[in-house]
Amino acid sequence: MATGRRAEKMRETRERLLAAARRAFAEKGFAGASMDELTAEAGLTRGALYHNFGDKSGLLAAVVERLDGEMAARAEAAARRAGGGWAGLLAEGRAYIETALDPEIQRIVLLDGPAVLGDPSRWPSQNRCLQATMAALEALAAEGAIKPVDVEAAARLLNGAALDAALWVAASDDPPAVLGKALQAFECLASGLLAEAA
Fold first, then answer.
1. CB 156 within 8 A of CB 59
2. Residue-level pLDDT at 114
3. Nearest to 156 by CA among 184, 124, 121
4. CA distances to 25, 56, 101, 134 from 195, in Å
5. Kind and range of the H or E element at 12?
6. pLDDT tens across 65-101, in order?
7. Total Cβ atoms within 10 A of residue 39
8. pLDDT, tens digit, for every residue of 3-57?
9. Per-residue DSSP letters for 43-95?
10. What is the spatial distance between Cα 9 and Cα 49, in angstroms, rounded to a whole number?
11. What is the model's pTM?
């Protein structure tokens, strides 16, 4: 019984830190967010932050992981609304790129994340996206909807294009204008995978 309460208290502490960090990183950026202010807002100590996340970078990694998961969920929902198949795959890529207009995602995931945590293509959340894209391409290949191509290679290139497009949109001086260019180019590149009959 005591173990269950302790585990629940630990989850609650983590959630409070994540929520406070998400707000602070979105409003002030990683560099501008004060660990003392962040922990005070959460009603916790720096010790709780260190115990749960190691340091400020570890906390950012956890926030990025959560937001990246939300980005993937939006993209998957767009794929389902499009009816799956090729249309779903394109909708998923478009939705992922469009998340670059969300100020919170833009600042935390696409600007501060790579600057602090390194290459986004190596983040665990990106590997899950890769696996999902591979599964979609395998299904399309089985239907003969795409050209005979190595599925992993195609998935890596599609995901890389979507990620790089989102990074470009986020870092641009005019994200809405760049978004249109990025989406058009993404669809043009992706369509090269379609089989002639499709």
1. no
2. 95
3. 121
4. 44, 48, 32, 17
5. helix 2-32
6. 999 889 889 999 999 999 999 999 999 999 999 999 9
7. 22
8. 788 888 889 999 999 999 999 999 999 999 999 998 999 899 889 889 999 999 9
9. T--HHHHHHHHSSHHHHHHHHHHHHHHHHHHHHHHHHHHTTSHHHHHHHHHHH
10. 14
11. 0.88
C-alpha 162/C-alpha 23 separation (Å) is 26
What gap in Å lies between CA 118 and CA 116, rounded to an integer?
A: 6
Please name the amino acid found at residue 69. G
Query: Which 3 state secondary structure label does DSSP give 194?
Result: strand
Residues 164 and 166: their CA atoms lie apart, in Å, by 5
Q: Which two tokens stand for residue 146?
A: 């795409």
C-alpha distances in angstroms, 139 versus 51, 76, 135, 164, 185? 44, 16, 6, 25, 24
Residue 122: band (very low, low, confident or very high) from pLDDT cuts 50, 70, 90: confident
Angstrom distance (rounded) from CA 22 to CA 79: 27
Instruction: Provide the residue type at 31 as one letter.
Output: A
C-beta atoms surrounding 30 within 10 Å: 22
Q: Beta partners for 194?
A: 146
